[in-house]
Each structure stands twice: as C-alpha cells, then as structure tokens.
Amino acid sequence: MSEFRQLDQSIGARLARNAYRQEFRSLQWEIAGQESWKLERKQHFKEPGVRSWEAFSRGAWSEALRLIEEERDYLREFSAEVARLNIGLYRVRVVEEPIDLYLQGRRSSRIVR
C-alpha cells in the first residue's frame, strides 16, 4: 500500500448517521488489500448514544477517559483484523481555529497546520 493511487472520483451520497453506520458496517471488511479514506469537515461533534462522548459533553473528563479505556480490547481486535486483511485506514479532518475541545482531547490525532 505504499504506492500512491488516485482516490476514487465517484460521486457519493449524503447519508443520515444511522444509514451511514449501517452501510459502513456492512461493507467494512469487504475491502481487503485496499484503502479506506474518511474525510471529516464538521467542526463540532455530537455523538448521542456514545457513552464516552456523553460523559465528555457533561464535562466528566475522567469518566470519558475511563469509558474509552474500556474499549481498548475491542480496538486491539479491530486493529488486528485490519492488519490481517491488509486494509489501510486513513482519516483527514479539516479543522478551523479555535480548535474544538473534543478535538483537543484526542491524543491520537495529529494536527497539521
């Protein structure tokens, strides 16, 4: 996956959150040996129903971190399956200043200016 390839130029369709998640989950393992790119442009994030986000939105930072930590085993399993299937996962997130607190809290993100 080190060689540069042109991104697919097909036209997409905007999906509601639940429809997007359903379609993504139904297709996510069918791209063995390929790349998956996610482009995010949204500046403020709301994820009702996600316990760690709900804790974060209440200002309960310690609880939010604890809940994220509880997902560690799942994330390890997911990452192992991605590696086994040789899938390249990429996310590009366009942000504006001031940077939203939600984004500042994501230690795994790299901000490129």
How does this structure look, described?
The protein has 113 residues and is of the alpha+beta class. The chain contains 5 helices and 2 strands. The protein has a two-stranded parallel sheet with strand order 1-2. The chain starts with 16 loop residues before the first helix and ends in a 9-residue tail after the last helix.
What average pLDDT do the residues reach?
83
Mass-distribution shape: globular
Q: What is the overall number of helices?
A: 5
Number of DSSP E strands: 2
Largest sheet: 2 strands, parallel
Spatial order of strands in the largest sheet: 1-2
Features:
113 residues, alpha+beta, two-stranded parallel sheet, 5 helices
Please write out the topology.
Blueprint: H1 17-27, E1 35-40, H2 51-57, H3 61-69, H4 72-84, E2 88-93, H5 101-104
Parallel strand pairs: 1-2
Give a short overview.
This protein is an alpha+beta fold. The chain has 5 helices and 2 strands.
